[in-house]
Amino acid sequence: MTFDELSHQIFKKQSYLCVGLDTDPRKLPAHLLTEPDPVFAFNKAIIDATADFAVAYKPNIAFYEAQGPRGWESLQKTLEYIPGDCFTIADAKRGDIGNTSGLYARAFFDPSAAGLDFDSITVAPYMGQDSVEPFLEYPGKWVILLALTSNAGSADFQRLPTTPDGDVELFEAVMQTAKTWAGADRMMFVVGATQSTVFSRIRELTPDHFLLVPGVGAQGGSLADVSKCGLTESGGLLVNASRSILYASDGTDFADKARAEAQALQTEMATYLGQYCSRA
Ligand SMILES: O=c1ccn([C@@H]2O[C@H](COP(=O)(O)O)[C@@H](O)[C@H]2O)c(=O)[nH]1
């Protein structure tokens, strides 16, 4: 999916919601456990219930890898089931020396390799340019680079000063350098919703790039704050919620409750698009 197509979907659906498919087999509603593939049955119901309100889906690969070959199969079926008008994100946080990154890229971007054809993948920037470039060799595919993550440990390294006056923190140096590797049409950055106090600085640094923003819902980040400082004329945000949608109920009504959570976020997002984007 291109930058313009993603932007178009945001204004069409009046939403920048990304539903995180962090599907934990231990949290599935009991009535699904007799299904041949309970994880896929759950994901299918969640996608059916939320697709009107979401522009992206983000399976977190850890949840599938932890189940071995069965998990990979559930992931493949889930990816194929996601509607074509939605952007897909493999939240895999990969990155290694170039030839190894090349194989990670192949796994997630070349359907003839591991049966997966994601639009994008999350990548850790720590190993530098040659660890990221192999992902950019796939035309039309996106790299979503970790910049300032939502967890408390983000302060350990990402906020370290890189200049004597302390004006440029490590995450800012990462964004400044990485945006020379690919344009806003191929690269996004991960910035946690819990980091809303630095969103204005981030927007000065990257006025055009999409930001993938996890951390609303279960992690307590503010959708209002993130939207105020993060929205652009193209939309420019994908705000992820996983647990607050997936596990809104553990009963037979789980899909209805997930739909209600997604709809509530979309309704709020439509308000912010009207407030902060003249194009809306
Ligand atoms: O900084 C980051 C980067 C990635 N994540 C991932 O996003 C989701 C958040 O799930 P919630 O249940 O909505 O908290 C999850 O897959 C994380 O691994 C993040 O939270 N923060």
Rg, rounded, reads: 18 Å
**Ions, cofactors and other bound molecules:** the ligand O=c1ccn([C@@H]2O[C@H](COP(=O)(O)O)[C@@H](O)[C@H]2O)c(=O)[nH]1
Number of strand segments: 8
Strand content: 15-25%
Q: What is the SS-derived class?
A: alpha/beta
> What is the H/E string?
HEHEHHEHHEHEHHEHEHEHH
CATH class identity: Alpha Beta
Q: Major sheet, described briefly?
A: 8 strands, parallel, barrel
Q: Shape from CA axes? A: globular
Helical content class: 40-55%
What is the CATH H-level superfamily? Aldolase class I
Stated plainly, the CATH topology is called: TIM Barrel
Note poorly predicted spans.
none
Average pLDDT taken over every residue: 97
Distance between the termini: 21 Å
For the largest beta sheet, what order do the strands appear in spatially? 1-2-3-4-5-6-7-8
Q: Name the CATH architecture.
A: Alpha-Beta Barrel
Number of domains: 1
Number of helices: 13
Family: Belongs to the OMP decarboxylase family. Type 2 subfamily.
Pfam families: OMPdecase (PF00215)
Organism: Spirosoma rhododendri
GO molecular function, one term: orotidine-5'-phosphate decarboxylase activity
